[in-house]
Amino acid sequence: LAIAKPSVEARFLYGLVAFELQRWLLCRSTLKPLAGDAAWGPSARTLVKRAEARERAAALAKVKKEHRAAIAKLEGQLRAGELGTADKTLQDAEKARPGHALNAYYRGYIAYQRGDRVGAQREFRAALGQRPDDVWARYMLALSVDTPQREPLLREVLRKSKDPALRRAASAALVKRAPRPSRRHALSMRLAL
Prior knowledge:
Blueprint (H helix, E strand, L loop, with lengths): L7 H13 L3 H8 L9 H39 L3 H14 L4 H13 L3 H14 L4 H10 L2 H14 L3 H14 L5 H10 L1
């Protein structure tokens, strides 16, 4: 018993069903040979393009999900003070999305926690290079630089941030960096006048 070759219409419908079921590879392999057909070609080409775009979007969504999971795990480890395991988790996040601004931010945060101010500054600047409006990276950069450079960065954080907790922290850091003269110093200043 020989099976007849399916008609162009039947193959197109088969590809359309595969598209609706989100079977991207099956859809593309079924519809690509129909691209040259006069009647069904334009529709087949359109569906193939849409299937390829949705396949790319699904792959990117999977990568983003893996990255978000690694970052969430990393944040938990950092809250617990587990810097050693945080390095491994950060490597997993970097494998998922290399060069992402959050990776640079957390590399800087870990360097800051370890006391490596130069490494922290480099990473926070890298994060700001990708996301210039990241006020948390700017705040951490301000904490990691020398005192004369700190004040303008903290003032910029205060100007740009809408987060009340960050604004309080930046204000407190500004106050700590600019010590008020003691009463004894004020008295000696008055006496000198």
